[in-house]
Amino acid sequence: MKRTLASRTLRRAIAAAVVSTVVGVSLAACSGGTSSGGGSASDIDAALKQGGTITYWSWTPSAEAQVAAFEKQYPKVKVKLVNAGTNTTEYTKLQNAIKAGSGAPDVAQVEYYAIPQFALSDSLVDLKQYGFDKLKGDYTPGPWGSVNVGGKLVGLPQDSGPMAMFYNKTLFDKYGIEVPKTWDEYVAAAQKLHAADPNAYITSDSGDSGFTTSMIWQAGGRPFTVDGTKVSINLQDEGTKKWTATWDKLVEGKLLSTVPGWSDDWFKALGNGSIATLVTGAWMPGVLESSVKDGSGQWRVAPIPTYDGQPANAENGGGGQVVLKQSKNPALAAGFLKWLNNDQDSIKVFLKSGGFPSTTKDLNSSDFLATAPEYFGVQKINEVLVDGAKNVSTGWQYLPFQVYANSIYGDTVGQSYTSNSSLNPGLQAWQKALVDYGNQQGFTVSGK
Amino acid sequence: MASVTDTRSPRTRTRTRTRTTPSHAAARSNAGASSGRRIRKSPVLTIVMILFVIYSFVPLVWLIVNATKSQPDLYSSFGLWFGKDFNLIQNIVDTFTYRGGIFVQWLGNTLLYVVIGAGGATLLATVAGYGLAKYDFPGKRAVFAVVLGAIAVPGTALAVPTFLMFSQAGLTNTPWAIILPSLISPFGLYLIWTYATEAVPTELLEAARMDGASEFRTFFTVSLRLLAPGIVTVALFAIVATWNNYFLPLIMLSDPTWYPLTVGLSQWSAQATGVGAQPIFNLVITGSLITIVPIVAAFLVLQRYWQSGLAAGSVKQ
Asked: Do the domain assignments include residue A47?
């Protein structure tokens, strides 16, 4: 008797559990809907006044303090800050959440190279409806161009990365090397340095797609052109060949350190004089100061070398924030975004964390330009960096599947690096893989 | 009352039976014989073994040595020897307090996933494996085929479909997204099944039934004890799998408050990259060392069962 009673109770309990699970599923499925209705500038003020909760994905070191400052100013708004991973980890999660139709944040940090990928899949809110296009004059042209994709304004820029050459002055002085102004001089410096000290290299590069695209950009190449879903790729255009002609000398001559970027060995090499220069974005000083303590007093900043001695520059790294279409409160999300990347209270926090802004007002403020860190031997580094921002050439486009493109860079161009042979065959292999992939993904991709 | 005294006698009988289970005896005599032979006759094998020991221990030694270094010391000292200062205590303190003690939270999450996920997997595998081994019912062969098929599909391949399914159900970014898939252990089920077929004699169950014990009672008082080595093996497999689970939580969770240690540590490591990089390699290393301590302890405590259980799985088909 007891046994049958017990098993009946059990059966009933299981049935109840199953029913409640099914109900839970269907309820959750209902709440997964998206909203992306139109809005206007006045909606933002209303949303901020009314308050609410939004989620913000970011891995920037300044995010926590910025959110705290925002919540202090708008006590009714609660911003849930989530570090969903650094760069590609976050993009994968964002892509998954978009595909799944739920789980995406309201606002997310996305680097410039990845913005087209999310913009062209129609996952981002066009901020023109809130009148954000009027903010154009507040930002430098490079970053502003990066958040305008296919006629839509899909984000607001946060930082920027006009390139510059960071060099170890102690090392240069020790071997009597002049600061190179052209790429030919740079190659000569690489040879001289490595001949004098076999453990020292002009820079480290074992194949970094972000660096490659920036260098092609600086050389005047425009290998990617995107018009809606029509994409054309030409990784053998004039600019690209100009860059490979120079860089091949370093790759083939084994003049580059193969220490992978951002590894512990790399941080070590930046401090002990085995890597002499870094050609990278203007956001680098903050990283050097906080993470390469041994390099203090040794590093300086110079304009990026050019091909003909005439100033020419590109952007490397940097990103902005976007509002996702999945957001249930896009007006509030846009309000937070505008504060985050346009309000002085927020930008102040950002600058304090060592970031390099994209707002012209801050770039040209006398305080910013007068900054002379001890780390850089009291050089007024921002004068050099801001000057570099003015020379960034326009018209650069990233692929609408750049995240994927970067992920297979090592399999193709990386092989040229490991075999110390010309980069051109590697770039052609990369192009072929990209054309195939793009066509599979539904783009119309042509390779030249 | 009568039935209680009756079940006791089979229990004592079973003890002697487990001791003489063929696989156990075989494993033991095998180990004894071969170890003696190796030392005397095969210097080549000894050298190979030494190489393997070195191969397995160098990363561990590296981890222990480098957990004692500060971040700048990591850059300026030789990898396989100690640095200038002994920083282990400070590193441990920093690991547990960095970003408001998020590491403690991750440790708690991992324990939660292991206790509920691996514990549940063991329970389900035991009950189901035993049921399949000892009861006849229509469709048994089909279940057998499905279980065998499930073993062949790696969990990683199912991660993305599982993610899409869970996000439809609104379960992503919750602990359920990790616990529910962890509950399924086809390999564990198969192991218990083969183990139960041999280790639990059907006559014994019939004797218990004759004495009027219910099926549940027989299971809990007779079979469970006989299955103990198998259960511990399955538990160990499940604990290791859940403790090391990386890919599933990586795609299921976006909120660090639910991360297990594996994903959390990889996030700390990735923090060294790009704009606004903040490398904390010393904490990543110390955190990794702390992460492996419980699993090493579990292995040392449970390895006897692990070995005998492995032998059981391999011998019986």
From this structure: yes
Is the Cβ of B170 closer than 8 Å to some Cβ of chain A? yes
Q: Across the interface, do B167 and A102 touch by the CB < 8 Å criterion?
A: yes
Token pair belonging to A248 = 């091949």
Nearest Cβ partner for B275 among A89, A101, A318:
A318
Sign of torsion, CA B189 B193 B194 B200? Answer: positive
- Give the residue from chain A lying closest to B263, CA to CA: A85
How far apart CA A76 and CA A72 sit, in angstroms, is 9
Q: Name the pLDDT band for B33 (thresholds 50, 70, 90).
A: very low
| C-alpha dist (Å) from residue B107 to A299, B113, B144, B242, B258 | 40, 10, 37, 13, 10
Say yes or no: B54 contacts chain A, CB-CB below 8 A. no
ipTM: 0.73
Q: Is B80 near chain A, with CB under 8 Å?
A: no
Asked whether residue B125 carries a pLDDT value surpassing 80, the answer given is yes
Nearest-angstrom CA–CA distance, B182 and B171? 14
Kindly list the residues from chain A whose CB atom is less than 8 angstroms away from the CB atom of residue B251.
92-93, 96
* Measured CA distances, A214 to A169, A208, A210, A437, B145 (Å): 24, 10, 6, 22, 55
The mean per-residue pLDDT over the stretch A216-231 comes to 94
Averaged pLDDT for residues A82-93: 90
pTM, two decimal places:
0.80
Cα B36 from Cα B34, distance rounded (Å): 5
| Residue A357 in contact with partner chain B when CB distance is under 8 A | no
Architecture of the domain made up of B2-41+87-315: Orthogonal Bundle (1.10)
Q: What is the dihedral of CA A181, A184, A187, A191, to 10 degrees?
A: -100
Taking CB atoms and an 8 Å limit, are B254 and A3 in contact across chains? Answer: no
Q: Establish if A296 belongs to a structural domain.
A: yes
Identify the band that residue B80 occupies on the pLDDT scale cut at 50, 70 and 90.
confident
Same domain, yes or no: A131 and A101: yes
**How confident is residue B306, by pLDDT bands cut at 50, 70 and 90?**
low
Nearest CA in chain B to A352: B276
Question: What is the average pLDDT across A300-326?
Answer: 95
pLDDT higher than 60, residue A35:
no
CA B98 to chain A, closest CA, distance in angstroms equals: 14
Cβ–Cβ pairs < 8 A, chains A and B = 122
Which residues on chain A are in Cβ contact (under 8 Å) with B172?
Answer: 97, 100, 102-103
For A207-218, what is the mean pLDDT? 96
Judge whether A371 lies within some domain. Answer: no
Please report residues of B whose CB lies closer than 8 A to that of A354: 276
Contact A353/B at CB under 8 A: yes
Q: Which helix (H) or strand (E) holds A301?
A: strand A299-302
Distance CA B308, CA A162 (A): 63
Domain range summary for chain B, segments of one domain joined by +: 2-41+87-315
pLDDT of A70 over the 90 cut: yes
| CATH number for the domain harbouring residue A394 | 3.40.190.10
Q: Which residues are CB-contacts of B279 (< 8 A; sequence separation ≥ 6)?
A: A262, A264, A267, A291, B71, B271, B272
Mapping DSSP to helix (H, G, I), strand (E, B) and coil, where does residue A151 land? Answer: coil
Parent domain of A224: 163-314+382-447
Cβ–Cβ gap B75/A159 under 8 Å: no
What is the distance in angstroms between the Cα of A265 and the nearest Cα belonging to chain B? Answer: 7
Judge if A60 and A77 occupy the same domain: yes
Q: What is the pLDDT of residues A110-167, one digit of tens each?
A: 999 999 999 988 899 999 999 999 999 999 988 999 999 989 999 999 999 999 999 9
Q: Please, what is the end-to-end C-alpha distance for chain A in angstroms? A: 82
Q: In degrees, to the nearest 5, what angle opens at C-alpha A45 toward C-alphas A39 and A51?
A: 100
For residue A1, pLDDT beyond 80: no
Distance (Å) from the C-alpha of residue A268 to the closest C-alpha of chain B?
A: 5
